[in-house]
Write a structure and sequence with these properties.
Number of helices: 7
CATH superfamily of the largest domain: D-amino Acid Aminotransferase, subunit A, domain 2
Number of strands: 16
Order of helices and strands: EEHEEHHEEHEHEEEEHEEEEEH
CATH topology of the largest domain: D-amino Acid Aminotransferase, Chain A, domain 2
Strand content: 25-35%
Helix content: 25-40%
CATH architecture of the largest domain: Alpha-Beta Barrel
């Protein structure tokens, strides 16, 4: 099995052992990042690392590596992975003090750092042809969803609800607004406008979301509104899709038991999916 990067060393996954007092293990006190590579070429790495740095700053953990060091680790993981389409997982916790205490360790202890690689599975032919089902669930997450925290219990529970319902994703709804998925951002075509939730504390600023929004603005012929999506208007949408770094643009043709539009994949998703695939072919570090 491929080695992982763990606290400055390259070790087998079973040798990456943490202390019983690691704060990520005890409290979920840490952040993570996922960076894709397609055909072994990194896509959006700088934006992902910028988001990692911001998440660390927001919870007062010093970035353990320089940007050059992170890229060295990431590139080695991509190179050593048997797959050509690779997902890089990075996790940084507040480390392992001598005892369990809610307050931050004083003085600080070294953070625990993990980076690993796994294969990206492409969307199935069935989903690309017919789309997929999503469900809506109450948003039970905390108030700082813009921080990519390892504390993901509400997301996990929502995704499991989706799996139990025969769906691929759960759409989080808070105070009458459809915000985003359990692990993705939400886009909906309503009245010929393409809507997605504005950046803020209630959503994670997805790198794929941001790249897609920039691409749509540059193209100029599809009106894009970064605006709240009312839950009831979600069922008026003619198209819905979700975005993430490992699923790109995931077409949703059914929400709960209701078809989206005609219940078939629409022209906006088709056009943007093709354009985004071309964008991914550009080398970016």
């Amino acid at each position: 099995m491929q080695a992982v990067y763990f606290n400055g060393r390259w070790v087998a996954p079973e040798q990456a052992r943490i202390s019983a007092f690691d704060r990520g293990f005890l409290f979920g006190d840490g952040v993570y990042e996922v960076i894709p590579a397609f055909k072994r070429r990194l896509f959006g790495a700088e934006a992902h690392l910028n988001r990692l740095t911001r998440s660390l700053e927001q919870i007062d953990i010093q970035d353990p590596l320089t940007r050059v060091q992170w890229l060295d680790v990431i590139n080695r993981l991509v190179s050593d992975c048997p797959s050509v389409d690779v997902s890089i997982y990075i996790q940084v916790t507040r480390g392992a003090p001598a005892k369990r205490d809610h307050a931050y360790p004083d003085p600080p202890v070294p953070p625990t750092v993990l980076a690993s690689a796994s294969a990206i599975s492409p969307l199935s032919a069935k989903i690309r042809t017919h789309g997929a089902k999503a469900i809506t669930v109450p948003d039970l997450r905390w108030g700082r969803c813009d921080i990519k925290s390892v504390n993901l219990l509400p997301n996990i529970m929502a995704r499991q609800q989706a799996v139990a319902a025969g769906a691929v994703e759960a759409i989080m709804v808070r105070e009458g607004i459809a915000l985003e998925g359990a692990a993705s951002n939400l886009f909906a075509v309503i009245d010929d406008d393409l809507l997605t939730a504005p950046l803020g504390p209630h959503i994670l600023g997805g790198v794929t979301r941001n790249r897609l929004a920039d691409m749509v603005k540059d193209q100029g012929h599809i009106p894009l509104l970064e605006s709240p999506i009312p839950f009831d208007r979600l069922f008026d949408a003619t198209e819905v899709f979700m975005t993430s770094s490992t699923r790109d643009l995931l077409p949703i043709t059914r929400i709960n038991e209701h078809p989206v539009g005609t219940g078939r994949i629409g022209p906006v998703w088709t056009e943007l999916s093709q354009a985004f695939t071309k964008l991914k072919q550009q080398r970016e570090t």
